[in-house]
Amino acid sequence: MDIFEKEATKLMTGRVEFLLSAPELKFLPEPTVPEIAFAGRSNVGKSSLLNALVGRRAIARTSVTPGRTQELNFFEIGNPTELRFVDMPGYGFAKAPVKTVERWKHLVFDYLRGRSVLKRTMVLIDSRRGIGKHDREVMDMLDKAAMSYNIVLTKSDKVKATELSQVTDAVAAEAAKHAAAHPDLYVTSAEKGEGIAMLRAAILDAART
User: Fold this and answer.
1) What dihedral do alpha carbons 152, 65, 54, 192 form, nearest 10°?
2) Domains annotated on the chain, with CATH
3) What 3-state class would DSSP assign to 40?
4) pTM reported for the whole predicted model
5) 8 to each of 3, 57, 203, how far by Cα in Å?
6) DSSP helix/strand/coil, 91
7) What confidence score (pLDDT) does residue 129 get?
8) Which of 124, 172, 175, 191 would give a disulfide with 181, using CB separation of 3.0 to 4.6 Å?
9) DSSP label at 131?
10) Spatial separation of the C-alpha atoms in residues 143 and 157, rounded to whole Å
11) Is the dihedral of CA 99, 104, 110, 112 positive or negative?
């Protein structure tokens, strides 16, 4: 772990507090510090990754029920607060009425398009699945909004090394075709801790840029 990774780890595993849930844009907190958003399809492992990043077991709820997160959830990082994590509703295959899913989608997209302090979006992709239809829709939207994002592969411990390599290469090749996609791709396992320190450093770097 290099010096910057240690600094990022110290920050993100220090003071972490839930701030608020915003079911609509009018409930967003004041844009006073940089924000890093986390997007991903339902059950991609977003909550588990957030918990791993901050070194907690349950700061973000995990669930086997797709669509559990229905609001933008804000967490303050650092003392004093240096940045915020934003846990966004999962997209795709949510077990909810169509109108509810559409409401979540508009909330997420409107936030991504218009939030002035949003520094980077982390688009989470399941290592077992690769990029799917709903992921491409979000990536296309981020391209149009000129909102920089990183691809983060989750659950890397759930696939064999050869398969992981193939998925990583395929995802990197597709990401290279997207204007707003950052060239650095992160391969992580929340369960094993793989790639977490490196991702923390990337998040802190993005927040300070």
Assistant:
1) -60
2) 3-208 (3.40.50.300)
3) strand
4) 0.92
5) 9, 19, 8
6) strand
7) 94
8) 175
9) S
10) 30
11) negative
Place of tokens 């003392």: 79
* Nearest C-alpha neighbor of 72 from the set 124, 22, 16, 34: 22
Contact of 201 with 8, CB cutoff 8 Å: yes
* pLDDT tens digits for range 19-32: 999 989 999 999 99
98-135 pLDDT per residue, tens: 777 778 778 888 888 889 999 999 999 999 999 999 89
Say which residue the tokens 């707003």 belong to.
Answer: 180
User: 122: which 2 tokens?
Assistant: 């982390």
Instruction: Look up residue 133 and give its two tokens.
Output: 């239809």
Alpha-carbon distance values, 7 to 11, 46, 78, 177 (Å): 6, 23, 11, 33
Longest dimension (CA), the chain: 47
Q: Report the alpha-carbon distance of residue 67 to residue 198 in Å, rounded.
A: 28
CB 181 within 8 A of CB 149: yes
Q: What is the side-by-side strand order in the sheet with 118-126?
A: 16-22, 72-77, 83-87, 35-40, 118-126, 149-154, 181-187
